[in-house]
Amino acid sequence: MSTPPLRKDAAQNRQRIIEVARRYVDDGRLLQLNDVARTASIGVATVYRHFPTPEALLETVALPAVEKLLRQAEHALAEDDPWTALRDFLAAAIEVLLTDPALPPVFAAGTDALEHTGDLKRRLVTAFAELLARAHAAGVIDSGVTESDMTPLLCGVAYAANIQSALDPTERATLGLRYLDLLLTGLHRGSVKPAALPPSR
Amino acid sequence: MSTPPLRKDAAQNRQRIIEVARRYVDDGRLLQLNDVARTASIGVATVYRHFPTPEALLETVALPAVEKLLRQAEHALAEDDPWTALRDFLAAAIEVLLTDPALPPVFAAGTDALEHTGDLKRRLVTAFAELLARAHAAGVIDSGVTESDMTPLLCGVAYAANIQSALDPTERATLGLRYLDLLLTGLHRGSVKPAALPPSR
DNA sequence: GTTGAAGCGGATGACTCATCCGCTTGTGGT
DNA sequence: ACCACAAGCGGATGAGTCATCCGCTTCAAC
Q: In the structure, how far is the CA atom of residue A32 from the C1' atom of nucleotide D10, in angstroms?
């Protein structure tokens, strides 16, 4: 189960591959393993050994962002008001989803389809479920909405904002937050209209 | 501008190609022009002549569905209550989007990127904008939502429902309607909660 | 320094893509 | 009925991508 530590040169190569891939993703270029190998001046086989498929590589590229999000989820769990906690976390998630092009595919994939991120994402989903459960307990959210609805809905919001491909990433993030606001209004239950999201941060 | 009518055999081939492609789409197979050609027992070049790219073919496959939707939009314009009209049309759209796998790409593409459907889709968007304008005029909808938000939001809802890939198409359509309901609640403005969608057409 | 395991790389065969061009067929004119 | 020719056909083919295999190199434990 546990992999023995990588040889020094191997670890270096792996790192290099990830860096190059990150540039590809940021530039919106298609991740092609042969191509990445050439750019990194590394043998094709080496790349394939570390990452059998483009998806696996993408996943690894996305990993830091998932970690960051997980920290934010845990931070949100410290917040007192369940609605604020949920809302702020969702906003953070949307922002990251729209800022880092590596993330949406990871989010859209089923937890178990993920080789490298699976565990991490499961933890994220758990924290997420907890936030949702608290909101439910407080009665501030539509009771028909389950935990398994949240990831798809989040991806849907991100997807919607991403369709406006003419916009630059920042504008798209803003749009995404606006769409999230719409969704949140739909989700919210309670006597008062939920406060709109703060201007962004 | 106007193309001279196709030779009889050519028209036949074209039709055959579309039929085969339709099967591909319905089965969720990837549309590969060479592949379609082989299945249809038609030369590759013939396929490429009629449809230079898989997208063009897909678009043509989607055409009847777009037409159907356009009719529904026009039908909705006959409805008295602006909110009901908008809501019912959106529900119909979601249902079609989730039922016919050829449609989402066409909807997600910019109106002008479409070779064969462009005109039709523009008409659809126009009817759509009219429905939205009426809702705005009646003050039953969030004033910040513009016509150009609607297609993305619709695609987002469809996308969200489609992520649950384990579900069969019918269940996914139901889920999509539920998500649409959430969105509609977010969109709606007025003293009373909007009536939920009827149980499905 | 030696040794064997871990890792490397690029040549290569399988496969997909889309074009080109010599041949066939439908059609409009006589 | 026949002809002429434009419209259309098809598949062979070159360009390009993908992923594997295996002989060679390098690391690190002793």
A: 33
Q: What is the CA radius of gyration of chain A?
A: 19
Say which CATH class A61-187 falls into. Answer: mainly alpha
Phi-psi region of B7 (alpha: psi -120 to 50; beta: other; left: phi over 0): beta
Average pLDDT, rounded, for chain A? 91
Report the C-alpha gap between B150 and B131 in whole angstroms.
Answer: 11
Which is the CATH superfamily of the domain at B62-187? Tetracycline Repressor, domain 2 (1.10.357.10)
Q: Whole-angstrom Cα distance, residue A32 to residue B109?
A: 24
Nearest to A181 by CA among A107, A72, A88: A88
B8-50 fold:
Arc Repressor Mutant, subunit A (1.10.10)
The whole-angstrom separation of Cα A35 and Cα A27 is 14
- CA–CA gap between residue B15 and residue B157 (Å, rounded): 32
Tokens of B61: 């496959």
Any bridge partners for residue A141, and if so which?
A188
For residue range A116-129, list pLDDT tens digits in order: 777 888 999 999 99
Q: Which has the closest alpha carbon to A91: A163, A189, A161?
A: A161
Residues of chain A found within 8 Å of residue B182, distances taken between Cβ atoms: 142, 145, 153, 183, 186-187
Residue A135 phi/psi, 5-degree rounding, is: -60, -40
Domain ranges of chain B: 8-50, 62-187
Asked if B106 and B59 touch (Cβ cutoff 8 Å), the reply is: yes
Q: Of A150-154, B60-64, B106-110, B191-195, which range is least confident?
A: B191-195
Of all residues in chain A, the percent with pLDDT exceeding 90 is 81
pLDDT tens for B50-80 read: 999 999 999 999 999 999 999 999 999 999 9
Name the nt closest to A14 by C-alpha to C1'. C7
Non-local (6+) Cβ contacts of B183 within 8 A are A182, A183, A186, B153, B157
C-beta contacts of B139-146 below 8 A and 24+ residues apart:
B139/B189, B139/B190, B140/B82, B140/B83, B140/B188, B140/B189, B140/B190, B141/B83, B141/B86, B141/B187, B141/B188, B141/B189, B142/A182, B142/B186, B142/B187, B142/B188, B142/B189, B143/B189, B144/A178, B145/A182, B145/B187
CB contact under 8 Å between A152 and B163, yes or no, is yes
How buried is B84 (Cβ within 10 angstroms: 0-12 exposed, 13-18 middle, 19+ buried)?
middle
- Residues of B within 8 A of A153 (CB-CB) are 160, 179, 182
